[in-house]
Amino acid sequence: MAAKATRTPLASLPGPGNVPKSPCNGEKLSSTKSKRPHTDIENHEEIDDDDPRLEEITDSCDVVRRKINTFINSGEMKVTEFQRAIGVSSNSYLTFMKQHGPTKGIESKTYDAAFAFFKKRELQGIKMQRKKVKKADEDEKMDVSGIHLDGEESKEVPIYDTCNEIRKKIAAYLRGPGITQAGFLRELGKMYPEPKKISAAQLKTFQGKKGPLEGNSSNVFYAAYVFFEKIRVKQGKKKSKVREETEARWSGRGGITTEKQGGMWICHKTEAAVQDKYGDVEIVRKH
Fold first, then answer.
1. Measured by CB atoms within 10 angstroms of the end CB, which terminus of the chain is less buried, N or C?
2. What is the DSSP string of the chain?
3. What is the maximum span of the chain, computed from C-alpha positions, in angstroms?
């Protein structure tokens, strides 16, 4: 197996978004085809897997992650199909996709292989497909106007999902059929007493955070919680175990706050402040 080239930190490279050259780990991209129809590359220019243009990485890790999400959300391939297509394991893929930052994941095989995959398509003139959704059908599917939650008139619906849970729900929902990001954002804006415009940039910022309370002051957090709670009620689904556990933790405090968090925890040098998955902080003794 060819030795992996030493990477120069992204921040030290000249020009915005430049990333070091990579030999793509010496791996050949898999020729596995999706069982579902997607763009036919046979009518496009043939690009060898060892073409030097595939080795000059010019996208940051975050850009590659966005391209992957857009590609998967288009429905052209499922996640497992994409993993096979670029020749990486699910562990490598999931580890890379969970990271945040322009250089986070720079040593990942998924980073190299995914860049090469999209660069090859670009050289072949294959455009990224977009979901083809009829607005009327989408609006009907997402319509929750007939569902009322206590406190929604004054933006005081108690929240019993952490920011991390809402981020997972958003990601899963946008992967669903007949749903576009634009339509989803339009619907989120309707979750406020006075409708608001929620932008793609706000959604991106919220989704890029990590932690049970990170992003709790975002308009996306409150609106998405209300939206998904209405969807749950509309579909007649029971509360999940995680939802019930979170509600048990926060019901006595009126739900998870949407006020921006700040300050610090003071503890002895033998202790540490630890935040659990529900957002509660406990002072524990260091081992």
1. C
2. -PPPPPPPPGGGSSSTT------GGGPPPP-PPPSS-----TTS----TT-GGGTS--S-HHHHHHHHHHHHHTTSS-HHHHHHHHT--HHHHHHHHT--STTTTTT-HHHHHHHHHHHHHHHTTPPPP-----HHHHHHHH--TT---TTGGGT-PPP-S-HHHHHHHHHHHHTSTT--HHHHHHHHHTTSSS-----HHHHHHHHT--SSSTTTTSHHHHHHHHHHHHHHHHHTPPPPHHHHHHHHHHGGGTSS--SPP-------TTEEEEE-TTS-EEEEE--
3. 67
Quote the percentage of the chain above a pLDDT of 90: 46
Q: For residue 278, what are its two tokens?
A: 């529900």
Report the relative pairing of strands 281-285 and 271-275 from DSSP bridges.
Answer: antiparallel
Neighbours of 235 (CB within 10 A): 7
Residue 128's CB: how many other CB atoms inside 10 A?
A: 13
Judge if pTM exceeds 0.85: no
pLDDT in tens, 252-277: 999 999 998 766 777 778 877 778 88
CA distance 140 to 183: 11
Q: SS3 string of 251-274?
A: HHHCCCCCCCCCCCCCCCCCEEEE
Residue 167: both structure tokens together: 């981020």
